[in-house]
Amino acid sequence: MKTWLQPPRLRISAESEEENGHATWLELFYDLVFMVAVSQVAHNLSEDISLSGFFGFVFLFMPIWWAWIDTTFYANRFDIDDIGHRLLTALQMIAIAALAVNIHHGLGESSAGFALSYATGRAVLVIEYLRAARHIPLARPLATRYAQGFAIAAALWLVSIFVPTPLRFSFWALGLIVDFATPLTAKYLQLGLTHHLEHLPERFGLFTIIVLGEAIVAVVNGLSNQTWDGTSAIAAVFGFSIAFSLWWIYFENIGSSALRSVGTTGKTGVYQIWLYGHIPLVIGLAATGVGVEHIISSQPSVALPPAERVLLCGAVALCLLALSLLHRTGVIRYCKVRSRFRLRSAVVLLVLAIVGKGLLPIVVIGLVAIVCAVQVVQDLYQSRLFVI
């Protein structure tokens, strides 16, 4: 913090391009409250792994993801580290912490608190954008559009507090639609205001690490809930292998090449692909952790119940489908071969989810781990051929 009060500036300015490519300490500290929020919403899914439980998990996960996304995109475009920004960030952290507190009964008795927490976080972000609009004439149209859209969404969430359930959730859905649509309506206002090419992939990677961490926690929780034996230890190794393989095939392929194309082609839609394409990936990763924990905690000599089997296979399949899309669109390494391979592997897992009745937990998690490990082997083999 160089001065107590200073106006925002664009990260894309020449003097900021080199020195601000990495996440700041404040951003890393900010991520901690989201780690807690993701853990809480995953706990919700763990308590109800039915279809309705999964949809409830997704419905509560989306505001968490969107709150992180919008703050990240703001920080990626605007560079500021004065006392005002730090205090506003602290307010956002308090709002997200309150969101996490209200997640457990977020679709029931705590729904009003959940809505108020999210609306508060959006209001703080609106203040940030208004501040940028005031001090940066070049960014004023874009910042104003974002401030208007997010303010409308915040108002809908705030009004929902005074509406009884289940109608309250209709206001939530409408607010999320407005939030989702705002970047799309501002697509052409982004011309000349490209994002920082190194900072954005790093921030997405950090959130992915946070969600992947849930799978590691799941392995530990699953083992702590039962007496260790050879079968449970092998299941834990398979669970870790799934997380490690998903980490490998994402981070081995992530890069900023798709973002660099914006500067040469002016296709700002790449930002939207980055934004929306990661949604099924992070949802799938969070659900994978829950599925791993349930399988490790299951009776090893009893056939795995359908709900647990469908959850794990479906969650990992969702991750692979998302990665297939990201490969195909060039958000991560553009490769049609890897895109097709991820897609076909997702289909295999979905078939396993449907026809795997009667399989033991160790067999199901082992087969899923093998499918994930094969992704790594395929990437290594293809990279070797490319080098040769």
Structure description:
This protein is mainly α. The protein folds into 2 domains: 9-190, no CATH class; 199-387, I/LWEQ domain (Up-down Bundle). 76% of the residues lie in helices and 1% in strands. It has helices at 14-17, 25-47, 51-77, 83-101, 111-135, 140-160, 167-185, 199-224, 230-251, 257-265, 269-297, 306-329, 336-355, 361-387; strands at 9-10, 78-79. The chain has a two-stranded antiparallel ribbon. It is globular. It starts with 8 loop residues before the first strand and ends with a helix. Residues 13-19 have low confidence and may be disordered.
Instruction: Outline the biggest β-sheet.
Output: 2 strands, antiparallel
Helicity range:
over 70%
What's the gyration radius in Å? 22 Å
Tally the beta strands: 2
- The end-to-end distance, rounded to whole angstroms, is 49 Å
Under CATH at level 1, the class of the largest domain stands as: Mainly Alpha
Q: What pattern of helices and strands is seen along the backbone?
A: EHHHEHHHHHHHHHHH
Give the count of structural domains. 2
Number of H- or I-type helical stretches: 14
List the keywords.
388 residues, mainly alpha, I/LWEQ domain, 2 domains, two-stranded antiparallel ribbon, globular
Offer a concise description of the structure.
The chain is built from 14 helices and 2 strands. By secondary structure, the protein is an all-alpha fold.
